[in-house]
Specification:
Layout: H1 9-19, E1 39-44, H2 50-66, E2 69-75, H3 80-92, E3 95-100, H4 109-117, E4 122-125, E5 136-140, H5 142-156, E6 161-167, H6 173-189, E7 193-199, H7 204-217, E8 223-226, H8 229-242, E9 256-261, H9 264-272, E10 277-280, H10 283-298, E11 306-307, E12 313-317, E13 320-325, E14 329-330
Parallel strand pairs: 1-2, 1-3, 3-4, 4-5, 5-13, 6-7, 6-8, 8-9, 9-10
Antiparallel strand pairs: 10-14, 11-12, 12-13
Main location: other
Keywords: Signal
Region (Disordered): 22-42, 326-347
Length: 347
């Protein structure tokens, strides 16, 4: 994905907040790239998602804005062993901090503890490792994703009908958070809606197969919750188009769809009436804030709980801290908002 230069004022504002985004920032922080700072190794989690490709495009730009040197950038392709190997390589190359996004949040714990023992802080982006010591997690409230999706579909369906849910990998805290919150909300607020939970392991082909099967057995499905638009959007729209169900919201055959990611392709689909909403994950802020915290870690700054100057909240975890970034619901009413990162980057 080619990410062109962004000149919108909102991104200039983002750059300013990243450079001074926490009340914990020391007034005498070392100069960018100065002595003792070292470099940051960044592992990208996968290349088969438009969201993560957008994130990858922001990494070098945000590194320059924050003032950190990138020791290396690797891609673990959704494989935990590859991630571990990549991290070892970056440490060998001299990385003093690591930014990663482990997709298997249960298996990365021992490596995190090993890095902590070597004095190498880790910032995890979008995913919260189940165990292992880390400096900071940078992610949005993923339970809120599931709740927002539930409430949107529940309202659109009038509290009745059938919904299919493409669950992310349940080995991932994100997949669990979104799935559990969606279920709790549906059970509590919309008990007359039937939910078909379809595990996908974040694979578009599995979502496509599940949708084809469910529409064959339950042609009256009226709602879809896609936990990751970056991998589920195209397969879903292909199936609906083949079945003559890719129709605008006013058509009785319309199936209401809410997604998660906030990529440009989702925004285009909302404008066309192909899907109805998405929760926008801030790919630009994920990159910028993660590198900011990596720099803070190398400077020896201890995070503190509470609000930040970039509109988020830091909470304490058993194994570190988490910076919870805002993630708005996007519908036809606000899809053209220039403050949304999906409107400032093109695929």
């Amino acid at each position: 994905m080619k990410i062109p230069s962004r000149t919108l004022a909102v991104l200039a504002a983002t750059a300013l907040t990243v450079s001074a985004c926490s009340k914990d920032t020391p007034s005498t922080a070392p100069a960018p790239g100065g002595a003792g700072q070292g470099g940051v190794g960044v592992d990208l989690p996968r290349a088969d998602s438009d969201f993560w490709n957008a994130y990858a495009g922001y990494v070098p730009e945000k590194a320059t804005e924050v003032g950190v040197e990138l020791t290396a950038t690797t891609n673990s392709q959704n494989n935990i062993q590859t991630l571990i190997s990549n991290v070892d390589s970056m440490v060998t190359q001299g990385a003093k901090a690591i930014v990663m996004a482990p997709q298997d949040t249960g298996a990365i714990g021992p490596k995190l503890d090993e890095l902590a023992g070597k004095g190498i802080p880790v910032v995890s982006v979008d995913t919260r490792p189940d165990s292992g010591k880390l400096y900071m997690v940078v992610r949005a409230d993923n339970r809120a994703y599931g709740t927002k999706a539930c409430e949107f579909l529940g309202e659109k369906l009038g509290g009745k009908g059938k919904v299919i849910e493409f669950q992310g990998a349940l080995s991932s805290i994100n997949g669990r958070d979104r799935s559990e919150a969606f279920k709790e909300c549906m059970d509590t607020k919309y008990p007359d809606i039937t939910v078909f939970e379809e595990p996908t392991d974040w694979e578009g082909s599995k979502a496509q197969a599940a949708l084809e099967t469910r529409l064959a057995t339950d042609p009256d499905i009226k709602g879809v919750y896609m936990q990751a638009g970056g991998v589920f959007l195209d397969p879903t729209l292909q199936v609906l188009k083949q079945r003559g169900l890719l129709v605008p919201p006013g058509d009785p055959k319309h199936i209401f769809i809410v997604s998660n990611d906030g990529i440009p392709q989702e925004f285009d689909a909302i404008r066309k009436g192909h899907i109805d909403a998405t929760v926008s994950q801030p790919a630009d802020s994920y990159a910028g804030i993660a590198l900011y915290w990596a720099k803070q870690a190398m400077a020896g700054v201890q995070p503190k709980e509470g609000p930040t100057e970039h509109g988020s909240t830091v909470i304490k975890l058993p194994n570190g801290f988490e910076d919870q970034l805002p993630a708005p619901l996007v519908t036809k009413d606000n899809v053209d908002d220039p403050a949304l990162w999906g409107n400032s980057t093109k695929s």
